[in-house]
Backbone:
């Protein structure tokens, strides 16, 4: 999405800056499309009747809109603010921030290579966007698995690209979840379950694993790791330790994976 020069597609979520608010709607510029102008009609600002439009949108605001229609010949872009929920807005803004950061990192790579930014785009930037969808995803990918990344590409830029990525991008994390169902009919059953859960956390051996109560007898296990395989291994260690600790004392424990 970086360096976009054409027009957005219908249904696309775009990051916008509000430039002018009128009673009949708001004018915005599209940050990723050379600041092309878009328009949000008042009926598309919010659901229901909008009495005061500035209760919902104001000049200088950074927001996310859905593209309703594009007339490239006339340069008209119709947008909707009400069609974007809070979750979509947060995700899209974060994606935009990530891409702005990636563009800065590309400038650093270009500087270290003693080439212009435009040349850096021509040498590897455009290829990264084409292959990964965003430049940030390319930087993140080389941090997650530099060996595979360097096998897939060649060129003098690779070493510098990898170096800059490792200096500035935190390794991406995979999160998986499951639910432990644990019961005990023993007089001290609550204490046995608590000790079993603690045994599970201890088995993580410092890995990022948490167990929280969903409501007795269910306990959610959440594991974060750089790679899916590693997360699965930690989850197995945690759940097995907890299950063994409880069943060895006569309790019942099972692990259930949650469908996403």
Residues:
């Amino acid at each position: 999405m970086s360096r976009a020069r054409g027009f957005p597609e219908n249904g696309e979520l775009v990051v916008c800056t509000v430039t002018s608010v009128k009673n009949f709607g708001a004018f915005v510029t599209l940050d990723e499309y050379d600041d092309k102008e878009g328009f949000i009609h008042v009926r598309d600002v919010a659901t229901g009747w909008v009495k005061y439009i500035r209760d919902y949108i104001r000049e200088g605001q950074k927001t996310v809109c859905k593209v309703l229609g594009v007339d490239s010949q006339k340069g008209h872009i119709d947008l909707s603010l009400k069609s974007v929920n809070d979750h979509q807005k947060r995700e899209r803004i974060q994606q935009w921030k990530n891409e702005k950061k990636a563009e800065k990192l590309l400038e650093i790579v270009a500087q270290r290579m003693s080439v212009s930014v435009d040349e850096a785009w021509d040498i590897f930037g455009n290829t990264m966007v084409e292959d990964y969808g965003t430049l940030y995803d390319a930087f993140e990918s080389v941090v997650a698995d530099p060996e595979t990344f360097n096998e897939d590409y060649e060129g003098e830029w690779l070493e510098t690209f990898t170096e800059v990525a490792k200096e500035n991008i935190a390794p991406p994390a995979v999160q998986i979840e499951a639910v432990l169902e644990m019961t005990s009919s023993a007089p001290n059953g609550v204490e046995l379950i608590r000790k079993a859960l603690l045994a599970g956390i201890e088995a993580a051996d410092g890995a990022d694993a948490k167990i929280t109560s969903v409501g007795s007898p269910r306990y959610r296990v959440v594991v974060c790791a750089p790679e899916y395989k590693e997360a699965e291994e930690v989850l197995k260690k945690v759940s097995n330790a907890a299950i063994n600790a409880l069943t060895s004392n006569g309790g019942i424990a099972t692990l259930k994976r949650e469908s996403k």
